[in-house]
Design brief:
The chain is mainly beta. It is built from no helices and nine strands. 0% of the residues lie in helices and 60% in strands.
Length: 110
């Protein structure tokens, strides 16, 4: 399962960074490294359609592991051509189990 917390107010000023937080449970753990092997994907949707996030705005991630639980803080700049309502979608791919989990949260960019 995946829990997503983009920010408390679910609002961000256009061109500023948002701090996101997520928790993922029951990830597969590599027997050699004793760590999960995963990929994080962050996307922005407007009216159900993807909105391009500039390459220089790609997030910085800060992961922490405890057993089969992954906690990730990330920083992402939200720069869009038009202010308004969006959906922030996060996907985490568990490379060991071959499973992808996702969550979305409403976000207003003003």
């Amino acid at each position: 399962s995946l829990k997503l917390y983009p920010n408390v107010a679910h609002q961000v000023r256009n061109g500023t960074s948002i701090t996101g937080y997520l928790e993922v449970y029951n990830l597969g753990v590599d027997a050699t490294s004793l760590k999960p092997d995963w990929d994080l994907s962050v996307s922005l949707l407007r009216d159900g359609k993807p909105v391009a996030i500039p390459e220089d705005a790609i997030s910085k991630t800060f992961p922490f592991f405890k057993g089969d639980k992954l906690v990730v803080f990330w920083l992402q700049t939200m720069r869009v051509p038009e202010a308004g309502p969006y959906d922030l979608r996060v996907e985490v791919k568990d490379k060991i189990k071959g499973v992808t989990v996702s969550a979305a949260s409403a976000l207003t960019i003003y």
